[in-house]
Design brief:
The chain is mainly alpha-helical. It has a domain of about 40 residues. The protein is about 60% helix and about 0% strand. The chain has 4 helices and no strands. Helix 1 packs antiparallel against helix 2. The two termini are about 25 Å apart.
Length: about 90
Protein backbone atom coordinates (compact mmCIF):
# COMPACT_ATOMS: atom_id res chain seq x y z
CA UNK A 1 0.00 0.00 0.00
CA UNK A 2 1.38 3.40 -0.95
CA UNK A 3 1.83 6.03 1.68
CA UNK A 4 1.22 9.72 1.11
CA UNK A 5 4.04 11.47 -0.64
CA UNK A 6 6.10 13.14 2.13
CA UNK A 7 7.15 16.04 -0.06
CA UNK A 8 3.55 17.17 -0.60
CA UNK A 9 3.14 18.26 3.01
CA UNK A 10 4.13 21.83 2.11
CA UNK A 11 0.79 23.51 1.55
CA UNK A 12 1.84 26.69 -0.21
CA UNK A 13 3.95 27.23 -3.29
CA UNK A 14 6.31 30.13 -2.77
CA UNK A 15 5.62 33.22 -4.91
CA UNK A 16 8.84 32.97 -6.92
CA UNK A 17 8.07 29.39 -7.96
CA UNK A 18 4.56 30.43 -8.95
CA UNK A 19 5.84 33.31 -11.10
CA UNK A 20 8.48 31.10 -12.71
CA UNK A 21 5.87 28.42 -13.44
CA UNK A 22 3.60 30.96 -15.15
CA UNK A 23 6.52 32.29 -17.23
CA UNK A 24 7.56 28.74 -18.09
CA UNK A 25 4.02 27.88 -19.15
CA UNK A 26 3.74 30.93 -21.41
CA UNK A 27 7.18 30.65 -23.01
CA UNK A 28 7.18 26.99 -23.98
CA UNK A 29 6.13 24.79 -21.08
CA UNK A 30 2.66 24.19 -22.51
CA UNK A 31 4.14 23.15 -25.86
CA UNK A 32 6.64 20.82 -24.17
CA UNK A 33 3.92 19.24 -22.03
CA UNK A 34 1.65 18.81 -25.05
CA UNK A 35 4.48 17.09 -26.92
CA UNK A 36 5.00 14.67 -24.01
CA UNK A 37 1.25 13.94 -23.80
CA UNK A 38 1.05 13.26 -27.54
CA UNK A 39 4.10 10.99 -27.29
CA UNK A 40 2.46 9.13 -24.38
CA UNK A 41 -0.74 8.67 -26.41
CA UNK A 42 1.26 7.23 -29.31
CA UNK A 43 3.27 4.93 -27.02
CA UNK A 44 0.20 3.48 -25.30
CA UNK A 45 -0.97 1.99 -28.61
CA UNK A 46 1.54 -0.87 -28.31
CA UNK A 47 1.90 -3.17 -25.34
CA UNK A 48 5.65 -2.62 -25.29
CA UNK A 49 5.17 1.15 -25.09
CA UNK A 50 2.80 1.20 -22.08
CA UNK A 51 5.52 1.57 -19.39
CA UNK A 52 7.22 4.23 -21.48
CA UNK A 53 3.87 5.99 -21.92
CA UNK A 54 3.52 6.22 -18.15
CA UNK A 55 6.98 7.79 -17.92
CA UNK A 56 6.19 10.18 -20.80
CA UNK A 57 2.98 11.25 -19.05
CA UNK A 58 4.95 11.92 -15.84
CA UNK A 59 7.47 13.96 -17.85
CA UNK A 60 4.59 15.92 -19.34
CA UNK A 61 3.26 16.74 -15.89
CA UNK A 62 6.71 17.89 -14.76
CA UNK A 63 7.06 19.92 -17.95
CA UNK A 64 3.76 21.63 -17.24
CA UNK A 65 4.61 22.89 -13.72
CA UNK A 66 8.33 22.26 -12.97
CA UNK A 67 9.29 24.87 -10.37
CA UNK A 68 8.72 24.07 -6.71
CA UNK A 69 8.83 20.30 -7.29
CA UNK A 70 11.60 18.35 -5.59
CA UNK A 71 12.72 15.05 -7.10
CA UNK A 72 13.32 12.23 -4.65
CA UNK A 73 14.53 8.67 -4.87
CA UNK A 74 11.74 6.09 -4.70
CA UNK A 75 13.53 3.99 -2.07
CA UNK A 76 13.78 7.02 0.24
CA UNK A 77 10.08 7.81 -0.18
CA UNK A 78 8.51 4.38 0.12
CA UNK A 79 11.28 2.27 1.66
CA UNK A 80 11.59 0.05 -1.39
CA UNK A 81 12.73 0.34 -4.95
CA UNK A 82 11.04 -1.00 -8.08
CA UNK A 83 13.19 -4.14 -8.28
CA UNK A 84 13.10 -5.13 -4.59
CA UNK A 85 10.02 -7.37 -4.59
CA UNK A 86 10.09 -11.17 -4.37
CA UNK A 87 10.88 -11.44 -8.10
CA UNK A 88 12.94 -8.27 -8.31
CA UNK A 89 15.99 -10.15 -9.54
CA UNK A 90 14.21 -10.82 -12.84
CA UNK A 91 14.00 -7.15 -13.71
CA UNK A 92 17.55 -6.29 -12.68
Amino acid sequence: MLRDHPLTENDALDPLSFILNILWLVFGGAVAALAWFIAAAIMVVTIIGIPFARAAFDNGMYSLWPFGVRPAARDRLYGEDIGTGPLGFLGN
